[in-house]
Amino acid sequence: MITIDYNVCNRCSGAKEKRCERICPGNLITQDGDGWPVVRPREDCWACTSCIKDCPVAAISLRLPFQIEQGAGASLNASATGDKTHWTITDRRGKKEEFTLEVVKKCIS
Ligand code: SF4
Ligand code: SF4
Fold first, then answer.
1. For residue 47, is it within any domain?
2. Among 8, 20, 58, 60, which residue is least crowded by beta carbons within 10 Å?
3. Secondary structure class of 63 (helix, strand, coil)
4. Is the CB of 26 under 6 A from ligand 1?
5. pLDDT of residue 4
6. Of the residues 13, 20, 28, 38, which should be mutated to test ligand 2's pocket, given the most ligand atoms within 8 Å of the CB?
7. Minimal-distance CA residue to ligand 1 atom 7
8. CA of 70 to the centre of ligand 2 (A)
9. Contact 77, 90 (CB under 8 A)
10. Can you give the residue range of the structural domain that contains 54?
11. What is the pTM of this model?
């Protein structure tokens, strides 16, 4: 499940269209009356993580499905800088594991 940390989100510095709103392939992210992003309906999110990677302040996280997390509280966070995506997995005991992947760009013709 996708969650947005409203203590971190800066509403894309007042941009009319938010980056997470623009990139979601399912058009699941909209804005409330004050310009805060909201995900709805959450059950339609297929966890593609595009919004996570595109958020400039790493305000969006993904709670791992029950089958993977084996209990409540685990999460998967991602942030992007340049051509790298940084991932942090936090298990239900709070133990963190971090890794970085380079974005591979391919042209498909
Ligand atoms: S994870 Fe993908 S489908 Fe889900 S809200 Fe983000 S961009 Fe949309
Ligand atoms: S992309 Fe990030 S900072 Fe911008 S509105 Fe969405 S959650 Fe907030």
1. yes
2. 8
3. coil
4. yes
5. 92
6. 20
7. 24
8. 29
9. yes
10. 2-102
11. 0.75
Is residue 59 domain-resident? yes
CA of 101 to the centre of ligand 2 (A): 22
Pocket residue to mutate for ligand 2, from 4, 12, 77, most atoms within 8 A of Cβ: 12
Instruction: Kindly tell me if the per-residue pLDDT of 34 is higher than 90.
Output: yes
- Helix (H) or strand (E) holding 38, with range, is strand 37-39
107: in domain: no
Domain CATH code at residue 7: 3.30.70.20
> What total number of domains does the chain contain?
1
C-alpha distances in angstroms, 103 versus 30, 36, 83, 86, 106?
Answer: 27, 28, 5, 10, 10
Residues 97-101: what's their mean pLDDT? 89
Task: Examine the pLDDT at 58 and tell me if it is beyond 90.
Answer: no
C-alpha of residue 15 to centroid of ligand 2, in Å: 10
- The distance in angstroms from the start CA to the end CA of the chain is 34
